[in-house]
Amino acid sequence: MITTTGLTKVYRSRGRDVTALDGVDLHVREGEVFGVVGRSGAGKSSLIRCVNLLERPTSGTVVVDGRDLTALAGRGPRAGAELRRARSRIGMVFQHFNLLSSRTVQGNVELPLEILGLPGRERARKARELLGLVGLADHARSWPAQLSGGQKQRVGIARALAGDPGVLLSDEATSALDPETTRSVLALLRDLNRQLGLTVLLITHEMDVVKTVCDSAALMRDGKVAESGTVSGLLATPGSELARELFPLGGATPAGEAETGKETVRERTVVDVTFHGESTGRPLISQLSRAQGVDVSILGAAMDTIGGRQVGRMRIELPGRREDNAVPIGFLRERGLTVEFPEAAGAARAPETPETPETVEKTR
Amino acid sequence: MTWPEMQPILLQGTVDTLYMVGWSTLVTVLGGLPLGVLLVLTDRGGLLANRAVNKAVGTVVNVGRSLPFIILVVALIPFTRVVVGTSIGPTAAVVPLSIGAIPFFARLVETAVREVDHGLVEAVLSMGGGTGTVVLKALLPQALPSLVAGLTTTVITLVGYSAMAGAVGAEGLGSKAITYGYQRFETGFMLATVVVLLALVTAVQLLGDGAVRLLSRRERAT
Asked: Which of B47, B120, B218 sits opposite A98 (nearest CB)?
């Protein structure tokens, strides 16, 4: 539904080139909710604005619903009639809602219909229908200033749906909302996705958003897509950074760090285990302990439902070096679990975490 | 001078002043509003970003703003004659009054429009709106309270300018004050014109403030 190929955006600021997007290839399938996550400055915002060409990509193409929008753009900075028509079929919601305070709620929803040239009575009917869809039928005559943040975003969503779009772009739509309102707005997006078959591309910095609504996700870093795939696929990928961030394992820092300069630390191996699919239901850790005769310490564990599937993650500690533990690790891998060694990531992070005696205490 | 003597003169002066200020306000809005919007649109990062046009319009506005009004009135006499056919009288005064106030109002429009959140522009563009839609549906309606406040200031400035124009042949309260109050030493009359002008300015300000309050009520909750 949305395909970007080699999308690059370079801004010139004070004579210096800043690369916001560096060859982004993204594929969003029809009817899915696709989340792009990343820190601020990673290029998420430029990416979503390039999809409806609010920002002109420096190079690369954007195809939405089979139409190459970059070809419609023309050379000048202004949007031609064809691009404007294509934009009216792509809804967009914003972090700060961007409602006109000079119009009532209904007036705001009617605005895109005015742009489409619908007659007045038709506009009013459609606007009321959309407000009903987002649960704000009673607020048609209110002013945006009278609404709560969640209600404002619902108006924003109703407005974005006015042109019967096939695609909805969501630019940090829940970032200005409290957790409870975030949940209800996400649930609304999920419903619209299912009811209307709407394809949703959302950008966010909140992993919870991905966890709650997304079918697929991509992680952006320095203008590039570092990882992407379906959420369940990512969780089953060893070493996936997105999976680790979606499902962090609490405060237990990898024990590998504690070894330096501490003679009292005994040798041990810390392992992160991910259970997915049917393995979530089986008592594998106690089987491991019995079959291999190893003492397993559990450092942290969590269960969650991601993309409608049960997933469990556990950080365990095995006695002995990593080399000594090949058999128990093999045992777990054979049974369909994803096994990772957090030391590797821990070592890379080491300079950021000063190794004070307290952190060592906490580790144990 | 007795009150019955003053009354018709004051009345005539007030009518002329209102005539001059009224027409020049209309011309000022017609000229200053597009100019102010153009200043915002052609600025860097604007929808019609164009350095040359922005610089040119900005320079014209700055020159207009820095000329003392009394000089402008005199300098424009030949131009006024071409447009109105005469350089004397309230109709002739409308020309320099408008030309003096257009740059002033344009700057106020620019400030008001610039304050509109860029997110709203983005929203209208994302719906498929063009530049005209952005201006008419988002920028101007959103800036309306500030625009009305700016217009109030402009009208009051025009009342002041019209008194100055009175010194060089326009009619109105300013010219009456000079002829009767200053040249004939009628302190009583001078005071009376001051009172009328004060009432006029106060009425405009109250009216403007009321309109702004009414317009910005929707922007506050409840």
From this structure: B120
